[in-house]
């Protein structure tokens, strides 16, 4: 009986909310939104050398993000020779596939890329709850109907998408200079998809 009770307790802890599992401390904050600054300048073309590994395929080339207006972005991925691999448009809550090569023209994969890139370019996200962990502030949000946690020390450096208290996707912002993340990594834990971006501006 004691073993059974212990097992239930461990199961409860394992299935507990993500903040509790990671010892986040709930805090009171006046922040109603969290700001992602990394693709917010309309005057700038964000150009990255990219490697995208999806299942057993590897694509290398140039990844370009352009802000065209308020909540309006274009994302294009080409080979180094200039041939398009995909071309997506985001406007408010609408998403359009302008082009995608046949090798990755799969509805499930397109939906995953849509959610990933939406997290990259969404500038203002409503905050549900705020937490802290040592010197890091953490903001719980809902983006594309998925729970996301935004981690910020001096600047936003990580986003984690969570489902059933488990980390599904990690976005890392590295080598940050002002409002430019010179390196970005998107790592999926449940599928074979990794995106590495290195600024060449």
Automatic annotation (TrEMBL):
Descriptive protein name: DUF3261 domain-containing protein
Domain of life: Bacteria
């Amino acid at each position: 009986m004691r073993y059974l009770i212990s097992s239930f307790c461990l199961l409860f802890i394992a299935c507990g909310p993500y903040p509790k599992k990671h010892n986040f401390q709930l805090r009171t904050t006046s922040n109603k939104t969290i700001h992602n600054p990394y693709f917010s300048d309309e005057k700038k073309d964000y150009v990255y050398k990219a490697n995208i590994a999806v299942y057993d395929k590897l694509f290398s080339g140039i990844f370009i993000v352009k802000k065209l207006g308020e909540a309006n972005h274009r994302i294009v991925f080409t080979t180094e020779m200039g041939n398009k691999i995909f071309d997506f448009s985001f406007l408010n809550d609408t998403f359009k596939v302008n082009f995608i090569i046949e090798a990755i023209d799969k509805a499930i994969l397109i939906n995953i890329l849509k959610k990933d890139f939406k997290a990259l370019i969404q500038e203002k996200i409503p905050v549900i709850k705020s937490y802290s962990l040592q010197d890091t502030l953490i903001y719980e949000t809902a983006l594309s109907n998925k729970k996301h946690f935004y981690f910020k020390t001096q600047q936003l450096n990580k986003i984690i998408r969570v489902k059933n208290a488990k980390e599904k996707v990690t976005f890392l912002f590295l080598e940050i200079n002002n409002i430019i993340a010179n390196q970005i990594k998107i790592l999926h834990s449940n599928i074979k998809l990794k995106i590495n971006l290195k600024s060449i501006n």
